[in-house]
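Pipeline run #58 for the internal structure catalog. This entry was flagged by the ingest filter as a single-chain record with no existing model, so it goes straight to prediction. Upstream metadata was stripped on purpose; only the residue string is passed forward. Reviewer on rotation: M.T. Logging verbosity set to normal.
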Amino acid sequence: MTMNKTALVTGSNSGIGLAIARELAAAGYAVALNSFTDRPEDHALAQTLAQEFGVEAVYLPADMADPQICRGLVQQAHEHFGRLDVLVNNAGIQHVAPVESFPLERWDAIIAINLSSAFHTTAAVVPLMKAAGSGRIVNIASAHGLRASPFKSAYVAAKHGVVGLTKTVAIELAQSGITCNAICPGFVRTPLVEVQIDDLAAAHPDMDRDQVVRDIVLQKQPSRQFATVEQIGGCVVFLCSDAAAQITGTTLSVDGGWTAQ
């Protein structure tokens, strides 16, 4: 890995996104972190990453619900580094409700942030990668990009859309030296999931926390184990490597066997 390769990871000040940025930095990439906040601790996160891995790191705030800001974020990262080798579309939100009572504003926000943002950043980065003659686009979809669950109509629709977008972009760019793939995690142990576990444990006082995790949260994952954020990051690094040069337009499931059923 040369030290001058660069990556932009959207939604990367915590959880899966931050782990992806860390794994890319460990592999020698200069990284641009992103979220919608613009706090001192966000910028400090980039400084910590730079010091820990000896790479350049910058934090770029952006509202991924805004099409022009999405496109501007790509330009900003490209201008900062002078090149952009990797784009990881990770930004996402969730809301759970029956389809007939799903709040309109939550539907619009989930489609905008989970799906449309990936379209806008990709549209902005493709000309830059074409000019460079190479590039890697990695979309963080979900097992819900391949399977459905009740009460997640917006999220499932958006993630299915991300998988479809991935395939289309890959075919369009198949002879350009640019690949486009989607990683489809199952349940990953993140702070967000910890909150869900707490809520479920409270709703099932007859079960201990380990039982709730095994029998309710991980019911769909045959391994009965969470994927880790580091594993997702490692998969991104692999898809950006020379070994993955002929892997494009596909989904990589990291779901303990969920979608094999």
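catalog note: The two ends are 37 Å apart (CA to CA).
catalog note: The longest strand covers residues 178-185.
status: ready for reviewer M.T.
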